[in-house]
Amino acid sequence: MSERPTIDDIRAAATRIEGAVLRTPMLHSKILSDAIGAEIWLKFENLQFTSAYKERGALNKLLQLSDEERSRGVIAASAGNHSQAVAYHARRLGIPAVIVMPEATPTMKVTQTEGHGAKVVLHGAMFDDAYAKARELEAAEGYAFVHPFDDPQIIAGAGTVGLEMLEDVPDLDTIVVPIGGGGLMSGVSIAARAIKPGIELIGVEAELYPSMKCEIDRCSLPLGGDTLAEGIAVKNPGVLTAEILKDNLDDLVLVAERDIESAVAMLVTIEKTVVEGAGAAGLAAMLDDPARFSGKKVATLLCGGNIDTHLLANVLVRDLVRQGRIARLRVAAQDQPGALARITDQFHEAGVNIIEIRHSRIFTALPAKDTVIEVECEARDSAAIDQVEAMLKAAGFHVDRASLD
Fold it and tell me: Phi and psi for 63 in degrees, rounded to 5?
């Protein structure tokens, strides 16, 4: 196992990357603080040039390569953010770069990586498949491998985030950090324990990928599935990072997909900032268990902002459905003239806007003389849609509302 980086390594990394990586803002969120009942601070790493904290570790690693290693070129495996960071800074430094990415990587991350001048190889279903392929190419072609998390120089670079957080807000009680392979939280935890030993450090994983939790707690939980937080969907965490986090973490919690979606939507609507699922995992943990953080001064990292625009649109609309502001009502009615008008009249009176209407006369269990009319609608608040549902029932219609859960 490689030697653990120290606080001195992290401070050296901060000096090394200064000026080439953005010192991102650390801002207090009043609305989120009120919602959670704590003093919430956000570190906006999604504002980096490649929209993720990964630049810190990647650049720290690249700057310490020998001339020979630079001339041979580098290779990396990543679901997206690490790949962009390596590609961007490799091009800045004149180093050829090859990036191996899982085949399911969002198109935006692939095209952005290629846009930074790297050669992209798509391979496998998950990060671990891409990682194995990158190691194969490393051995075959003589590239220098830039690990996304299990490398002391990568960890030290990531730890510069922790330095900045505690320089900007020294009296933090708790730091909450998303965990995939563990490089970010390893670096932050080393910095935080050196600067403020008693600070509470909480890691967060997607419920579908509890790999680090299983490694630390020696438990066995189901692993796999489609997660919005693909940036932390790692089957096998780092060896070095696991050892660091065993010593430094106070807790590691799991968050459900619904909470991750809600966190992404809240950051867009409240903070007016775009954050990918992995980057919103820390806030998701707070939303899931606000009592745990009540009265504390808590910071989390918005560690990445690379989310596909179509996926983001889906997340925002689904959030409106959960809020009750968009609904799909299935209204059973007799298939006769005037039935549709009677239904739409109720929506008009309730002040609810109809988005789309569909008739279903064939694929229904209703009698042949009846029909199902599906109405997608939107309103200023959930009460208005509740009102139109009640009005339809009072007018003699049978109504069902579609649910996401």
Answer: -70, -15
